[in-house]
User: What shape does this take?
Amino acid sequence: MTSNFAELVKEIKSCRECRGLFGFEPNPVVSGNQNAKILQISQAPSQNVHNTSKCFNDASGRKLRRGWYQIPDEDFYNDNNFYISAVGHCYPGKNPNGGDRKPPKKCADKWLKQEIKLVNSKIIVLIGCYSANYFFPNKDFSELIFDNQKIDDKLTIVLPHPSPSNQKWFKDHPDFEPKRLPEIRKIIHDVLYCPIL
Ligand code: SF4
Assistant: This one.
């Protein structure tokens, strides 16, 4: 446990604990500054993120930045705007059925609580059921999305995963895009662009 942000990021990036579990060299991917306005926590890096070491450098990221947040890529990748982390900091490999494996829970236990403590963001954004369940294990995932939440007294927003393979959830929740998403987008824009917040 470290109380120094730079030291923590260095430790995360050099972690290789899951080498045996994955069967390949882990590549922990995080980005952002300690005073980033938004702490964003998703499931785990995709294979493309693993290969490029660039957070959300995939179809999910394009949908999140351009379709949902509606912000320029340079604002998303501005380290003073977003600290980008995940329940699993490394791409975990594929399941035999082709989908990505679940992120190892030990990763969140090892790093996330320290990141939450040290990143001085104004809000937290949780993306996908793995991150939502980690912080709110007894609450319904879809209900979490339609209301503002709190972690350590900090405004917390929950989003579904923007992955193209998540179509069923969107079909089952037709109110998300026209009703809840504009509310969430306004919060994101206020935090990023309103100087008095
Ligand atoms: S997934 Fe987490 S615990 Fe495992 S090697 Fe990557 S950073 Fe370390």
